[in-house]
Specification:
Belongs to the complex I NDUFA13 subunit family. It is found in: Mitochondrion inner membrane. Complex I is composed of 45 different subunits. Interacts with CARD15, but not with CARD4. Interacts with STAT3, but not with STAT1, STAT2 and STAT5A. Interacts with OLFM4. The protein is mostly helical and 127 residues long. The protein has a domain of 67 residues. The chain is built from one helix and no strands. The relative contact order is 0.06.
Length: 127
């Protein structure tokens, strides 16, 4: 081993080129600001759609209520006619049943007042 010559590897003349040791990543995708602005825009549009939907729902609800209020007098008149027919039928039946009782007045109010009071369900005859 005494006769072996070793040649040491040396840098080239002028030295090696400098190299970066800092982290260098390429830009990929939008920046955080752009993502944030996009999110705000999407949420703003969503709130706008919700507002319009709520306005439409309120308008439909108002229309439904107005339709019901418009029909109320008609329905009340039908109920009044039904009640009157029932009262007339009940009075006719009362006249038939109490025909032999002296001093009986058919259709006399049981409330002893001149004020109109809706009849009790027992007074109504369902036909």
């Amino acid at each position: 081993m005494a006769g072996v010559n070793y040649k040491q590897d040396m840098p080239p003349k002028g030295g090696y080129q400098p190299f970066r040791v800092s982290r260098h990543l390429p830009n990929r995708g939008p920046s955080g600001t752009v993502i944030m602005l996009g999110g705000v825009a999407v949420m703003g549009f969503g709130f706008y759609v919700i507002k319009k939907t709520n306005e439409e729902r309120r308008a439909l609800k108002r229309e439904k209520l107005n339709a019901r209020l418009a029909l109320l007098p008609l329905l009340q008149a039908e109920e009044d006619r039904r009640m009157l027919r029932s009262l007339v039928a009940a009075e006719e039946e009362e006249a038939q049943i109490m025909a032999g009782v002296p001093g009986w007045q058919v259709g006399e109010s049981i409330y002893h007042t001149d004020k109109w009071i809706p009849p009790h369900p027992s007074q109504l005859k369902n036909h």
